[in-house]
Write a structure and sequence with these properties.
Elements lengths: L4 E6 L8 H15 L4 E6 H4 L11 E5 L4 H19 L3 E5 L2 H14 L2 E6 L2 H4 L4 H13 L2 E4 L2 H10 L6 E3 L16 H7 L5 E6 L8 H14 L3 E6 L5 H10 L6 E5 L6 H7 L2 E4 L15 H8 L4 E4 L14 E4 L4 H13 L1 H17 L2 H12 L2
Parallel strand pairs: 1-2, 1-4, 2-3, 4-5, 5-6, 6-7, 8-9, 8-11, 9-10, 11-12, 12-13
Length: about 375
């Protein structure tokens, strides 16, 4: 029998932003590079122009449907049957439990292998009793549940996953795309960063990422490092709030909003920085948490020290005291202290950056893909 076609079943894929989109894209690429046949099933309106993917080592199969919110399960029955008819044998990698529930229930009848990928928020978010029961069914019926961190695995088990069929496979990074380099002169000129010490956060502008706490800590940082500036790269609904905080704290001139940058330019912004900080926190009432934090691996791959909030799965992304610092995400003085240390101690910053690069070389997307294939084939 020929080997299975790997199906990535997702509602998140570039150009849509976020960790799930990144996982789906990079895993499709890594499976493809390893010689597997890969097909990405994603909503048509998310995929955009299919010509974007012509030179990728995977195929795309747009999923139609105008009412995914109300008819999601019917659509998934249809597309699960379509996958079985056109791509048999197949292994379905569903990027959240809701997408994987229908294939898991039908897997025995249709001879499918189903792997559910658990990231964080979608597992933690409680919902009503019916939603919790459906989550338990999905996690219990899948062949494997793959969690991106130890934290997420713990939440999967709490939600009904089986311990012997739930494994941690951490997110990865592409060290050929993200690598150390000099500060790009054009970006230095564009943002007026000559002779500046740059604190960078590269993430969507949402409350849990912790931009606000870096701004709150900035006056203390500036007292010790007057040449420091805070460069915020990303877009989102929280920008207006961040601007208000910067005004209130008297640091508006030291906070630079760069807006959205395409993926191809992300490494340039890491190399522009002296330290990358994202003191993310859990918003328990919203079921909102950082399941891993790919940004910490990307920054490390570029040789930059990092500061992350001790919450969610971030402890799997940062090696405390080696690749960076873990902080109480609501302790502004602690955040300021770690920023000052890294901005004033070049040897410490360089040593952490070097260890971050070394770690990134062992946590690649291709490595993650190999682990997934080994697991799936058991």
């Amino acid at each position: 029998m020929r080997d299975r076609t790997r199906i990535i079943l997702t509602l998140d894929f570039p150009p849509k932003e976020g960790g799930i989109s990144e996982w789906a894209l990079q895993m499709a690429r890594s499976f493809g590079r390893s010689g597997e046949r890969v097909v990405v099933f994603c909503r048509r309106r998310v995929l955009g122009n299919r010509s974007t993917y012509l030179h990728e080592p995977f195929e795309v199969a747009p999923m139609s449907g105008r009412n995914w919110a109300g008819l999601k399960h019917l659509y998934l029955i249809y597309y699960t049957l379509k996958i079985r008819l056109k791509n048999h044998p197949a292994a379905i990698y569903a990027t959240n439990w809701e997408l994987g529930m229908v294939p898991s229930l039908l897997s025995a009848v249709l001879d499918l292998k189903v792997v559910l990928v658990a990231h964080g928020c979608e597992i933690v978010r409680a919902g009503g009793g019916c939603r919790r029961r459906l989550k338990r069914i999905a996690l219990g019926r899948a062949d494997w549940v793959v969690a991106v961190s130890r934290y997420t695995r713990g939440k999967v088990l709490e939600a009904g996953g089986h311990e012997d069929r739930t494994r941690v496979v951490a997110n990865g990074v592409d060290p050929s795309q993200f690598c150390p380099g000099s500060r790009p002169d054009d970006l230095v000129r564009r943002f007026g960063l000559e002779k500046k010490k740059v604190i960078l956060t590269l993430a969507r502008l949402v409350e849990r990422k912790g931009h606000d706490q870096v701004i709150e800590a900035l006056p203390e940082v500036l007292a010790a490092v007057p040449e420091a500036v805070y460069l915020i790269v990303g877009r989102g609904s929280y920008r207006e709030k961040l601007e208000e905080i910067a005004e209130r704290r008297g640091v508006r001139d030291q906070v630079i909003f760069a807006g959205y940058v395409p993926d191809a330019e992300r490494a340039d912004f890491y190399n522009l920085s002296d330290v990358v900080a994202m003191p993310c926190r859990e918003l328990a009432d919203q079921g909102n948490v950082e399941g891993f934090g790919i940004v910490f691996l990307e920054a490390g791959a570029c040789g930059k020290p990092v500061i992350g909030g001790r919450s969610g799965g971030v402890e799997d992304a940062i090696v405390e005291g080696e690749t960076g610092f873990l902080v109480d995400p609501m302790d502004g003085h602690q955040i300021a202290d770690r920023l000052i240390r890294l901005l004033t101690d070049a040897s410490l910053a360089r040593a952490m950056g070097d260890k971050g690069r070394l770690r990134a070389e062992g946590l690649t997307w291709d490595h993650a893909a190999r682990r997934l294939l080994q697991l799936e084939r058991k």
